[in-house]
């Protein structure tokens, strides 16, 4: 592969507005592997410098997605311990592979922790698409077949329709609704499961509409859970200005210039509205999350990055 492959993959990450954070992170992982395999520098310092430049571009493509930041952080930390360029390149390839494998297999342990929450004939309400949530629900279905799922469409790109189709293909009983119908149905669901792009002390960043659903579930006393691996945990306060993360207006409607169209993709749900965070390490409270985040190492280069908007 040529070095142009790095540029192509970065463009792919930047332009992807349909995939979940887990899938986009796999593209980022391929990008770092291509970088390591094609790196031509002669010193370890050159490797770290080049890795940080590529890593920064990756993170800035999708600043709301914590796994990208964590992937780059792990690669930099491991490469920093290498004594030679070749060892550094090998470490990047290895840590990237381990990061992806851990993320892929995490949903098995997430399902272990989620299983006791479901009773016979439970109804789970979901919002948007999450690969982690999809595989968790499939695993739960294999272990206990008697539950159903209600998926919101998740406008404007209708990722929830994708989730509904994929779950139905696995034999899970699914109902698809428009987003606003979720509030009408909350009194008949057992719990709410949503994925996440990032989890920080400021809250859970996910598809627009998640915060409103969480607030409604809180009012209806319906347990609202975030289903996500710890790679979604952002080790700093995620201060991305979500109102600047707008997308093409024609995804909502053709603009006749008589009014503005605001196409927000993400919102942030306060942790006090989250009943629990279902991770591969267990079901966490907000306090458990904060304790975990304080234990994380951040590479010095990342500490100084200004990828967040205060």
- Please provide the ordered H/E string of secondary-structure elements: HHHHHEHEHEHEEEHEEEEHH
Specify the helix fraction band: 40-55%
Q: Unreliable segments (pLDDT under 50, ≥5 consecutive)?
A: none
Nearest-angstrom radius of gyration?
A: 20 Å
Widest sheet, order of strands: 3-2-1-4-7-9-10
Name of the CATH superfamily of the largest domain: Translation initiation factor eif-2b, domain 2
- How far apart are the termini? 38 Å
Structural class: alpha/beta
Q: Within the CATH hierarchy, at the fold level, what is the topology of the largest domain?
A: Rossmann fold
- Range of strand content: 5-15%
Main sheet makeup = 7 strands, mixed
* CATH C-level label of the largest domain: Alpha Beta
What's the number of structural domains?
2
Name the average pLDDT. 90
User: What's the shape?
Assistant: globular
List the helices and strands and how they pair.
Layout: H1 4-15, H2 21-38, H3 44-61, H4 66-80, H5 85-114, E1 122-127, H6 131-143, E2 147-152, H7 159-169, E3 173-177, H8 182-185, E4 191-194, E5 198-200, E6 203-207, H9 210-219, E7 224-227, E8 266-269, E9 276-279, E10 282-284, H10 286-294, H11 300-303
Parallel strand pairs: 1-2, 1-4, 2-3, 4-7, 7-9
Antiparallel strand pairs: 5-6, 6-8, 9-10
Helix pairs in contact: 1-2, 1-3, 2-3, 2-4, 2-5, 3-4, 4-5, 5-6
């Amino acid at each position: 592969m040529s070095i142009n492959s790095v540029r192509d993959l970065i463009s792919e990450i930047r332009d992807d507005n349909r995939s979940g954070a887990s899938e986009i992170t796999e593209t980022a992982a391929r990008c770092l592997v291509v970088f390591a395999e094609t790196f031509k520098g002669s010193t370890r310092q050159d490797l770290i410098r080049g890795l940080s430049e590529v890593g920064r571009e990756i993170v800035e493509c999708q600043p709301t997605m914590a796994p990208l930041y964590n992937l780059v952080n792990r690669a930099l930390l491991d490469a920093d311990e290498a004594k030679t360029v070749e060892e550094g390149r090998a470490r990047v390839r290895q840590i990237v592979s381990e990061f992806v494998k851990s993320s892929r297999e995490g949903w098995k342990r997430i399902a272990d922790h989620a299983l006791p929450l479901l009773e016979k004939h439970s109804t789970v309400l979901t919002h948007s698409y999450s690969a982690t949530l999809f595989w968790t629900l499939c695993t739960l279905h294999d272990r206990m077949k008697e539950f159903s799922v209600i998926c919101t469409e998740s406008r404007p790109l209708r990722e929830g329709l994708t989730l509904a189709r994929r779950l139905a293909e696995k034999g899970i009983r699914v109902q698809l609704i428009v987003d606003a119908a979720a509030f009408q149905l909350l009194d008949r669901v057992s719990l709410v499961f949503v994925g996440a792009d990032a989890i920080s002390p400021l809250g859970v960043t996910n598809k627009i509409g998640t915060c409103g659903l969480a607030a409604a579930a809180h009012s209806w006393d319906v347990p609202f859970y975030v289903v996500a691996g710890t790679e979604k945990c952002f080790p700093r306060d995620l201060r991305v200005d979500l109102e600047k993360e707008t997308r093409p207006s024609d995804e909502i409607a053709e603009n006749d210039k008589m009014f503005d169209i605001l196409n927000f993709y993400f919102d942030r749900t306060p942790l006090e509205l989250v009943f629990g965070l279902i991770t591969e390490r267990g079901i966490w409270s907000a306090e458990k999350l904060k304790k975990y985040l304080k234990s994380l190492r951040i590479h010095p280069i990342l500490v100084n990055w200004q990828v967040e908007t205060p």
